[in-house]
Amino acid sequence: METEIRGRRPGARLRKGLVAAGTIAAMAVVPSAALATPGTGVSGTVLAKGTSDGRLRIKPPHGDTDVTVRTITVAPGGSTGWHHHPGQLVAVVQSGTLTRTLDDCSVEETFPGQAFIEPAGRRHVHIGRNLGTEPVVLYVTYLLPKGAPLSVDEPAPACAQG
Fold it and tell me: pLDDT digit string (tens) for 16-32?
């Protein structure tokens, strides 16, 4: 027979502790959505979605950054001309095939649904071409030093001349 101490049965404190611990554990595993409030009057449109080959290494400029998002269309046979960007950009190819020739004259093709980063600076001169029969449509996000242009025209590198 158990003896009551001060009106409590032995083990009551242990049971209260277990109940409290169980409640805390249950709260930890309950999805946070149960506590969230649904949004109203909000809509969104995915403009483009692309997957990169490997890890994206994004390096925003030091100091204030201008973030610009734009759509670029390159007609069949068209090109961007040789240029560089003062800041990095992240691009997604929505349609067509973009052919880029880089400063070392290596060539990269990017297909619909793929994403890529173009690095910043004069050391990364390149040209984008549409060698296909349908327009190339890109969705591009620029991360530029405040006040910088989207791109700067450059002469073709030595390997591309002649």
Answer: 555 555 556 555 555 55
Rounded to whole angstroms, the Cα distance separating 43 from 47 reads: 13
Rounded distance, CA 141 to CA 118, Å? Answer: 10
Residue 94's closest CA among 73, 118, 119, 69?
73
- What CA–CA distance (Å, rounded) separates 106 from 100? 8
Q: Are 134 and 73 in contact (CB under 8 A)?
A: no
pTM of the full predicted structure?
Answer: 0.73
Range list of β-strands (E), 15-160:
65-74, 83-84, 88-95, 98-102, 107-110, 115-118, 126-129, 136-145, 152-153
